[in-house]
Amino acid sequence: MQFLKKNYEKIVLGVIVLAALGVVAFLPILVSREKQSLDEMEGQVIPSNPKPLPPLDLSREDTFLNRSKSPITLDLSKPHKIFNPVRFQLKADGSLVRNPAGMDVEFLNVTNISPLYEIYSLTAVSVSAGMPTRYGIGIRHEAAASVAQRNNVKITYGAMNQTTNNFTVISAEGPEDDPTSVKLRLTDSGETITLSKDKPFRRPEGYMADLVYTLDNKPFLNRRKTDTSTICFAGECYKIVDITQSEVVLSQQSNQKYYTRPLNTTNSTAPAP
Questions:
Q1: What ranges do the domains of the chain cover?
Q2: Which of 45, 68, 132, 200 is the most buried if burial means most Cβ atoms within 10 Å?
């Protein structure tokens, strides 16, 4: 008994150590049994030769994707009437015509388009002793903004092979002081032209148009894109922003919307009421 009292702690420690060694020794057996149990469960749940899954059907998703490639747009233009109301307009002869709002410009007919020329002419020749002959070339711009500029002929003198004011004199025919013709090379286009005192050279640099609003038979003659004034009809005003040899482009002043009217359109007629 005395021995137990003196060695009590050692005996307890020894028992604990032996128990721990027993647990450690038993762990491999426990792990092996658990692994075997898991393998058996896996064999029961997962077959050795599973059937392949059926092909994935993505046709519905493909349909949605294809539809997204063609977005739906809401068209509120003519003949839609929600934002394009129909109104009736009184013509000059007193008759009433059905005229959808915003369609007034379609009754604007371009009756004529005339070219406006840049004109080169041989106006003078300056011959001085000891100096090269200088040729006076007159240039007039019919498409200029003001009437004074359109009628003004600006004369520029240039010697042979001297480039000035968009041209170079490259040759001359006839007497030195009175040549029958002069050849120029234009700087901007590289074009070679021939002109004489009675045969100027002309090339289009703009256009002038005649228009008429057919509902009121209201004419707008000799209109240019350089004009600051607008043309007004059916309660709206338009500014001419461009004229080509085949069409006129207008901008509606109230909303800055652009319209193109072609040359020689069939006379517009009002829609039937």
A1: 2-45, 86-113+206-262, 115-204
A2: 200
